[in-house]
Amino acid sequence: MKMSFPANINGKIFYIDEDAYTLLLDYLSQLRATFADNEADEIVNDIEQRISEHFEERIARGANVIVIDDVNRVIETMGRPEELSEEDPDSTSRHSSEPTGATPPDPKAAPQSRHNTAPAANPQTALPRRAP
After folding, report:
1. In a structure prediction context, what are the per-residue pLDDT tens digits for the chain, which is 132 residues long?
2. Which residue(s) pair with 1 in the sheet?
3. Angle at 96 (CA atoms; ends 95, 101), nearest 5 degrees
4. 0.70 surpassed by pTM
5. Is 98 buried (19+), middle (13-18) or exposed (0-12) by CB count in 10 A?
6. Cα pseudo-dihedral 101, 106, 112, 118, rounded to 10
7. In angstroms, rounded to a whole number, what is the distance separating the alpha carbons of residues 28 and 75?
8. HSE of 94 in the Cβ direction (CA atoms, 13 Å)?
9. Alpha carbon 65 to chain centroid distance?
10. How is residue 66 annotated by DSSP?
């Protein structure tokens, strides 16, 4: 018989066995050590949120307790800390907000205000206009 106890993950309570809890604590500690800069808390909080979503799915499928296999699946899905910290050479172009081939803005050009511009309407999601 294994001990299990409640654990608060991202504000949600899950019953987790002792081995799974130890592995999860080690994983989160490694994440904090890997991302030891000023964004570490935000990164770890985001990962904890995703972990709780995985655990919620597991509970919804009928599990009563989170076990070590569940934690291992989450770690495999989320990635190990050393994998997450590796810099992908394509990551900057893949996550860029500019389309591929776009020219960067001219630094000498006058700044454009974004406050008074309305977003372009998407014809598939736009609401129909009412008659006056």
Report:
1. 889 999 999 999 999 999 999 999 999 999 888 887 767 788 888 999 999 999 999 999 999 999 999 999 999 999 888 787 764 434 333 333 343 444 444 444 444 444 433 344 444 433 444 445
2. none
3. 125
4. no
5. exposed
6. -10
7. 10
8. 5
9. 23
10. B
